[in-house]
Amino acid sequence: MNAKSYTFSHALCRTPSRSIIDGLRAVDVGTPSLDLFQQHHTDYVAALRSTGADVTVLDAIEGFPDSVFIEDAALCFQEGAVIMRPGAPTRLGEAAALAPTLRDFYEEIVTIEAPGFIEGGDILTTEREILVGTSARTDDAGVEELRRLVDRWGYKVRVVNTPPGVLHFKTDCSLLDEETILSTKRLSASGCFEDYKVIHTAEDEEACANLIRFNSLIVMPAGFPKTAEKLVGAGYNVKEIGNTEAAKLDGGMSCLSLRFSPK
Ligand code: CIR
């Protein structure tokens, strides 16, 4: 196994802060429990480590309630890292806060500059391209800036649409392997995965579309038995992790880590 889109030597996670109760959410379905969030987070980190990866868990940042969703603040490749420019005003400062840590791993770090906005949750890196969904958090200027920055490493960016009312592009899809994407039907209907094999989330289980392929594992939220069965049936090694508290803040499995293999 050497696919660079899902083979990772490292991951960065961030401890949930006490301020998580003030995290952004589209609909208020209750306050997340910090204790349970922490328990799920510990299980998540253990799952990543079980694949042999070196996982660094950074300190919580109380000033940024959503900073546990570390994926949105940067995008990492073998060659270097891109510091994002989150479109949520309360999250803008998270990107700069992450830069010193990324310098421990990379010589080359580039930064999305104003005026564009872009968040990691809108970016799906596959073996052959970088798909970016424009959304309420990611605009055309942010995408064009990313395109310009990653050109130096030979990566191609393709712009797609995030379905209306969906937080991030990857809220509705995930990479399963070099050729295969897990997607909701509402997203794949746009035709954006025409050149891939697509496995759909089972009916009424759209909320598990955000999962991660991390080395040998598919790390998915617990509580979606029909989709889990589909994935196991297709030959994937599925590990389920509790996600009830992150879900109250529209977060899922990809948001909780930055996954990378620096050269
Ligand atoms: C937010 O609205 O920004 C957070 N409450 C959730 C971020 C989820 N991140 C992701 O899907 N990559």
Low-pLDDT runs: none
Q: Widest sheet: strand order? A: 2-1-15
Mean pLDDT: 97
Overall spatial form = globular
Summarize the biggest pleated sheet. 3 strands, mixed
Question: Structural class, please?
Answer: alpha/beta
Strand content: 15-25%
Helix fraction bin: 10-25%
What does this structure look like?
Helix content is 21%, strand content 22%. The chain has helices at 34-49, 92-103, 140-150, 185-188, 225-233, 244-247, and strands at residues 10-14, 54-58, 74-76, 81-83, 109-111, 123-125, 130-134, 157-161, 173-175, 180-183, 197-200, 212-214, 217-221, 237-241, 258-260. A three-stranded mixed beta sheet has the order 2-1-15, with helices on one face. A three-stranded mixed beta sheet has the order 3-4-5, with helices on both faces. Strands 6-7-8 form a three-stranded mixed beta sheet, covered by helices on one side. It has six helices and 15 strands. It is α/β, with parallel strands linked by helices and 263 residues long. The relative contact order is 0.19. The longest helix has 16 residues, at 34-49. The mean pLDDT is 97. It binds citrulline.
